[in-house]
Amino acid sequence: MNMEEREQLREWVVNSDNIVFFGGAGVSTESNIPDFRSVDGLYNQEYDYPPETILSHSFYKKNTKEFYRFYKKKMIFKEAKPNPAHLALAKLEQEGKLKAVVTQNIDGLHQMAGSKEVLELHGSVHRNFCTRCGRFYDADYILEAKEIPLCECGGIIKPDVVLYEEGLDYGIMQKAISYIAAADVLIIGGTSLTVYPAAGLIDYYRGKKLVLINKGITPMDRRADLVIAAPIGEVLGMFLE
């Protein structure tokens, strides 16, 4: 991030009270939560199926035991802590500048950092429900369960996480769209903007201050008003100073 990019972002943020942040896996990787899409070979040695197959609704239904073997090991990170990006966003919200965080992540780190208005497009590992009676269970219960987590009523517990083949929550999507459509500044970070329908949210932004923060290039770079190729924690961390 050069000085010019830094000053442009600072100016837009300082002068706005209607910022929306939309983030993906890259926001969490700096808290040591791996992005399962960047397969590192570990999965191939340990599992008979790729992550996208295991994390599908049909696999969960047919191979629940194997689903949970993967899910407990690769999707829940109890030791993860918010990084400067999470903390900066929470601070901007407290200052009345940031209206909402829209996230594709399921780790709950935005809430842990203190953010209040967090729209979780893909759900959360911290919410789990019995498929029979609807009783709530936390992530610890899932981790401590043997093989398949069962409710006291005998029903199978399912994470409140959107699996492949499942639709996004309509109410959360509508809320995200309304925040983005009304935003003055839209900051998008840590996402390749290739997973739909979430990536389509950018189409609802009508403003002229679209900021893309990503280590790699995205298909939307040409549409942005400011592109910063740097780690998101480093970029947003300047608002903690």
From TrEMBL:
Residues 1-241 form the Deacetylase sirtuin-type domain. It is found in: Cytoplasm. Its EC number is 2.3.1.286. Gene3D superfamilies: SIR2/SIRT2 'Small Domain, TPP-binding domain. Its cofactor is Zn(2+). It catalyses: N(6)-acetyl-L-lysyl-[protein] + NAD(+) + H2O = 2''-O-acetyl-ADP-D-ribose + nicotinamide + L-lysyl-[protein]. One of its GO terms (molecular function) is zinc ion binding. It is an enzyme of class 2 (transferase). Binds 1 zinc ion per subunit. Transmembrane segments: none annotated. Its main location: cytoplasm. Zn(2+) binds at C130, C133, C151, C153. NCBIfam families: PRK00481.1-1. Belongs to the sirtuin family. Class U subfamily. This is NAD-dependent protein deacetylase.
